[in-house]
Amino acid sequence: MAPLRLRDRDAVISREGLIFRVFGYSHPSNACICDVEYAPEAIFKSNSPKAYRNRGDHVFYKFYEDEGWKFVNKAFPQYMVFHEMLDKMVVGVNHSSIAEVRRPKEKLENLNGAESKDELHGALQDLLKIVSRYSDLSTKDFGVFGSLLHGFYHPKFSDMDLVVYGVRNATRLSETLQELYANDSSPLKNEFETDILTRGKPWLFENYSAKEFVWHQQRKLIYALFRDEKSGRIIKTEFEPVKEWKEIVNEYDSRMKIVQRGWVRLFAHIEEDDEASFIPSIYDIEPLKVLGGTKEAVEVRRIISYMEEFRLQAQKDEVVYVEGNLEEVMTPEGNFHQIALTYCPRYYEQVLKVASLNSR
Length: 360
Hints:
- The chain has 360 residues and is an alpha+beta fold.
- It has helices at 67-75, 104-112, 119-134, 147-150, 167-182, 210-220, and strands spanning 11-14, 19-22, 31-40, 52-55, 58-62, 80-83, 88-94, 98-102, 142-144, 160-165, 188-190, 223-228, 233-242, 257-275, 281-292, 300-305, 319-331, 334-341, 351-354.
């Protein structure tokens, strides 16, 4: 049997009906590292009104923040796998425990090949026609995730979550979206054109203001609002860059070890941003000024972020302020240091933002 190939945004379903999102591109040979996204009502219920999903008679609830990790760790520890490089257990699914695989690209092919059955389905088809018309991309370059992938979307209320595959296609899409946002007659607008999404709402990040968040999100271009003429609805739309198969390198290596070296704060220069649009997002850096942490901070080679907030956060040749966990990566070829931004006890202290040396 050929080995199972999975990539970021693919979904795997357990025998109990738990829905996991494959996370990134580096996995053990017999398992995939995941986030648990949804659970059937029979095994989990949420008090959050935004968590409810339904597919016919079947009800699901979405996990938010660290709910999923806590739930799996307590109730379904079989969906924790040992990460040899980190020397700890993480959420994941052994290939032998996968009941079903759902792939964004295949789902979109099915949706695009069928007659429109409701207004969201129709809006999705119209959106792709517009994007294709203004670029040289085709529907084969895209996929769908979230509720569209799993079939429990609400035609009148759900968002449209799309995947765009490949570095070149992601770049072309960004150029196209920028052109469409600037066109007054376009049905696509930048979701973060204003601060309405954060205005008056609680803000938890300690070193990253809501105003800074909106500025960074606006220039990422992948968050849109689509005005659907047929339904008259404004639909939140996201375009998630995912690597093509030929672009993927599995960096999971049991001979490598990643060791925590403390908390650091520093200014850095972005040397390369080729991997910034993916999860994990990787930024090659040159440290400029260390404000806190161990002496190894001056040796940091890169920032690696598993947080969607910091995807596409900085561009080549910009100066950034970063705060997070310093890690030493030990490889057979030698060691190097990186700053990791991820789920951790100090989650809301972490930050990566464009800055200047006199801004702190």
